[in-house]
Design goal:
Pfam families: YgbA_NO (PF11756). The chain is mostly helical. It is built from five helices and no strands. The structure holds zinc ion.
C-alpha cells in the first residue's frame, strides 16, 4: 500500500491504517470526482504522520496515538487526524476488516509510562547507517 521504505512493523501498520482512513475521508470531503489519489492537504498530513511515526520515542512498542502520553503532533495536524479518525473509523470495517480489528485491539493496550531510550525507528535507522 505505502511505498515508503522508512517504516516497518507496527509503525508501518499504523501509517497504512491512517492512509486507508485518509482515503475514505478525502474522497468524501475534498474531492469532486472519485480519484485514486489523495488531495494535497491529505498527502501533506500523511507525510507529517510518517515523520512523527519515525520519531515516535516508543518505536515498535508505540501505543495508539489517542492513548499516548507524548503529544508530538502540532495542534492543527492533530485536529485534522482526529476528524479523519472520527469520520473514517466506523467506515473502515467493511473495506478493511482485518486492519480495523487489529487497530481496535491496539486501542485496548493500556497507556504506557515514560518512553525508553533509543528505541525510535529513526534512532535505529541511524544506527544501522553507521
Ligand atoms: Zn483530502
Amino acid at each position: 500500500m505505502s511505498a515508503t521504505p522508512l517504516l516497518s512493523g507496527q509503525l508501518l501498520f499504523e501509517l497504512n491504517t491512517m492512509t486507508a482512513m485518509a482515503k475514505i475521508y478525502c474522497r468524501a470531503h475534498h474531492q469532486q470526482e472519485h480519484k485514486k489519489t489523495l488531495c494535497a492537504e491529505c498527502t501533506e498530513l500523511l507525510q507529517y504522520a510518517e515523520t512523527r511515526l519515525d520519531r515516535c520515542p516508543y518505536g515498535q512498542d508505540k501505543p495508539t496515538c489517542n492513548k499516548c502520553p507524548v503529544h508530538c503532533y502540532k495542534p492543527h495536524m492533530k485536529q485534522k487526524v482526529k476528524e479523519i479518525m472520527i469520520y473514517s473509523g466506523p467506515r473502515m470495517l467493511i473495506p478493511h476488516p482485518i486492519m480495523s480489528i487489529k487497530h481496535l485491539l491496539a486501542e485496548r493496550k493500556p497507556a504506557p509510562g515514560k518512553p525508553p531510550e533509543g528505541v525510535s525507528n529513526r534512532h535505529i535507522r541511524k544506527q544501522k547507517l553507521t
